[in-house]
Amino acid sequence: MRLKSFETIFDSAIERNGGLDKLEKLLPQARTVDELKNLSTEYCLSNMTRRIFQAGLNRKIIDNKWPAFETVFHQFDINAVRIMDDETLERMMDDKRIVRHWRKIQSVRHNAQSIFEINEEQGSFVKYIAEWPAENIVELWELLKKRFKQLGGASGPYFLRRIRKDTFLLTPDVVRALFRWGAIDEEPKNKKQRSYVQACMNEWHAEVNKPYCQISMILARSLD
């Protein structure tokens, strides 16, 4: 099936969401590169961890417990978290203030160390993420999956969305729209398939010059 123009998809989303003004209010806003560079590593680790604990769990539970997460993980200070010993992490399994999921608790220390290492390798983790080109965002997904724990699948892209790095998402609604508008004929599960979706997103981005986060939301809103 031939890839539909984004104008057709946009018109469908406008019709199904009560007009242009109502649709535009639903669209996410990405930070600029300079805005992203001003984020702290603590902010990034906090949002990364929040996404990890939300995955597969009730988000309200995590939201309600989040002040305690900030406390036990030292406000997500990278150096403080990366040197936490095993005994400290093990004691968290008895701390009812947080969600006691061993692998996710362990991931926080590992991910703090990974941010520290990327700071050492690249000069700045935040700058590295900020300058990563959106037209190849699926490669950043792969890097997050490789270098960090619990950031495979949808969690890497959702972390990027939380810090408002421009990225599309592959939610069930987006995937359904990709089928409908001729972008794919199979669910994009592996690297090759996601790279093909990236190429389609790049074509639509070139057509309408909208952020990738908005393109994916428009796709999700283009069907009943």
Report on the architecture of this protein:
- It is a single chain.
- The protein is an all-alpha fold.
- It has 2 domains: 78 residues, no CATH class; 99 residues, Hypothetical protein, domain 2 (Endonuclease III, domain 1), CATH 1.10.340.30.
- The chain is built from 14 helices and no strands.
- The protein starts with 5 loop residues before the first helix and ends with a helix.
- The relative contact order is 0.17.
- The mean pLDDT is 97.
List keywords for this structure.
single chain; elongated; mainly alpha; about 220 residues; about 65% helix; 14 helices
CATH class of the largest domain, please?
A: Mainly Alpha
Determine the strand fraction and express it as a percent band: under 5%
Tell me the overall shape: elongated
Structural class: mainly alpha
Could you name the CATH homologous superfamily of the largest domain?
Answer: Hypothetical protein, domain 2
The CATH topology of the largest domain:
Endonuclease III, domain 1
Helix content: 55-70%
Q: So what's the oligomer here?
A: single chain
- Taken in chain order, the helices and strands follow as HHHHHHHHHHHHHH
Low-confidence stretches: none
**Major sheet size, sense and barrel closure:** none
Instruction: State the end-to-end distance.
Output: 20 Å
Mean pLDDT: 97
Number of domains: 2
CATH architecture grouping of the largest domain:
Orthogonal Bundle
Number of distinct beta strands: 0
Rg from alpha-carbon coordinates: 19 Å
Tally of separate helices = 14
